[in-house]
Design brief:
Helix content is 33%, strand content 26%. It has 504 residues and is α/β, with parallel strands linked by helices. The protein is globular and about 70 Å long.
């Protein structure tokens, strides 16, 4: 089988940092080739070199045996390479259809835009790969999972031969993942080649024909699923044995800290997305919320943290109604929040690491200097986050936008976890981070709960909910249903509740 893509000695540096160090890689035509590794291993940099976003400092790329030098992504696209990015490359003010066809418009008589022809082709692609996308909806109104589907359809519409998927399943349900895998298998069957970047080892074992491991910017090795297992892959990535399950321990729960009564929250068009939610969380308890993306989870978390002002019902914290308090006032109550959308809600892209690290800290904890921000204290707190959560950056003064998505996520999680909050509202804490960091964050959540912190965990990773939670609720169509205590229900039973079955 011929190699459709070859990399020989690819090296990419950013100042004194060598992100890719003399990497050789051969990808066979009509296969799914996974590339895995920890954050900072060089995966995203390597994919950005292949897709034309970066130019290598050394080494050479070959496509179909022909030497290529990409100046930009358009060059890569012309050579048949497209990339579905982990952080979406979409224009929120435009419709889905406009985003998909941008730069690849069809013309009538060589002059006029033939939107009808574009729509017909896109609808055919959506039907072929089981994507149900509202083509006329504005992108800014779509859920995260729907945005992922738009990105995938956009690449399929461009008709490339080599498709790079960067963490494509991070926001998909188990059913959605199966649909994506069916689409990938269909592509491969018809001669396409897929580069699959993920941290999910079960997915790697299920979908890949070959698996390449990177560590610290260097090539470790390439194996096949038949000759390896998840534990060996994890050890290759991390350099040590990794425990792939949460270590649950018996603990005594405290009194009720948060009580929610008939809590409803509407979307920005006035439609109720969260419908009369009622539950309580005790001190030291981890309450997991499972559900298909867009079922009302975001309205719940944003409503509880005060980001949405249109909530109805009661939110009691330590017996006090806080439903009319704003975010700042809730932070003063020692309520922390890790948002799902780390880029638009979790950080200021143009600010430094230390400026992002003290967001919220200055409200809940304050500084020794009550008039001016104490930069020394801020830097000390940032360096603590960087050390404890292994945020890979050369300086806390760097702009946060220079970090990988996984390292941004670790900074946000560390910022919230290290503030001695009484309640933590957490959405997808391990989204886009490596297996070693997932193990670490799960342990941190367990230790925080053991110390008395109440935790509301919303995750689109069903395995994470089932591993970490003491008790599970399932969100479907804005309503909550009982998912049992830890270990009571199977993944199939929880999955059924997520899709409206199982007694809903």
């Amino acid at each position: 089988m011929e190699s459709v893509l070859e990399l020989k000695g690819i090296t990419k540096r950013f100042g004194t940092l060598t992100a890719n160090d003399k990497i050789d890689l051969a990808v066979k035509k009509g296969t799914v080739h996974a590339v895995i590794g920890e954050n900072g291993a060089g995966k995203s940099t390597l994919m950005n070199v292949i897709s034309g976003l970066y130019r290598p400092d050394e080494g050479q790329l070959y496509v179909h045996g022909k030497k290529v030098n990409f100046k930009n992504p358009n060059d890569a696209s012309k050579a048949g390479i497209g990339m579905v990015h982990q952080e979406f490359m979409l224009f929120p003010e435009l419709s889905v259809l406009d985003n998909i066809m941008m730069g690849y418009e069809k013309k009538k008589i060589g002059i006029f835009l033939d939107k009808k022809a574009v729509r017909s082709e896109v609808e055919m692609i959506c039907g072929e790969y089981h994507f149900n996308i509202p083509l006329d909806e504005l992108v800014q109104n779509l859920s995260v999972s729907m945005l992922q589907q738009v990105e995938i359809v956009k690449i399929l519409y461009r008709g490339v031969d080599i498709i790079i998927f960067d963490e494509p399943t991070s926001v998909l349900t188990p059913q959605g993942i199966e649909g994506l895998f069916d689409a990938i298998r269909f592509l491969v069957k018809h001669g396409k080649t897929v580069l699959f970047i993920t941290h999910k080892l079960k997915e790697v074992m299920k979908i890949s024909d070959a698996i390449t491991v990177l560590k610290n910017g260097r090539y470790v090795g390439t194996v096949t699923p038949e000759k390896t297992d998840e534990h060996r892959l994890a050890s290759m990535m991390v350099g040590r044995e990794v425990i792939l399950t949460a270590q649950k321990e018996e603990k005594k729960l405290g009194e009720v800290l948060l009580e929610v009564k008939k809590f409803s929250v509407s979307d920005y068009e006035g439609r109720d997305k969260l419908k009369e939610a009622a539950f309580a969380i005790r001190k030291g308890e981890i309450l997991g919320i499972a559900g298909v993306a867009g079922s009302g989870q975001q309205e719940l978390t944003q409503g509880l943290f005060g980001l949405r002002k249109n909530g109805k019902g009661e939110v009691l914290f330590n017996g006090k109604d806080i439903s009319r308090l704003n975010c700042r006032e809730r932070r003063k109550c020692h309520i922390g929040y890790v948002p799902q959308d780390r880029i638009s809600e979790g950080i200021n892209k143009e600010a430094s690491l230390w400026e992002n690290a003290v967001m919220g800290y200055h409200i809940a904890k304050g500084f020794s200097n009550h008039i001016l921000l104490d930069r020394r204290q801020a830097l000390s707190f940032t360096e603590r986050i960087m050390k404890e959560f292994n945020v890979k950056a050369s300086s806390p003064n760097l702009k946060i936008k220079t970090l990988s998505g996984g390292n941004i996520q670790k900074l946000i999680v560390g910022r919230e976890f290290l503030q001695d909050n009484s309640l933590l509202i957490i959405e997808d804490p391990t989204r886009g981070i490596d297996i070693g960091a997932i193990e670490f964050i799960w342990k941190k959540i367990e230790r925080l709960a053991a110390a008395g912190t109440a935790i509301l965990l919303v995750s689109h990773e069903l395995n994470e909910i089932m591993e970490v939670s003491d008790r599970i609720l399932v969100m479907y169509d804005g309503r909550l249903y009982d998912g049992g205590v830890h270990g009571e229900k199977t993944e199939t039973e929880i999955g059924l509740l997520m899709t409206g079955g199982g007694g809903t």
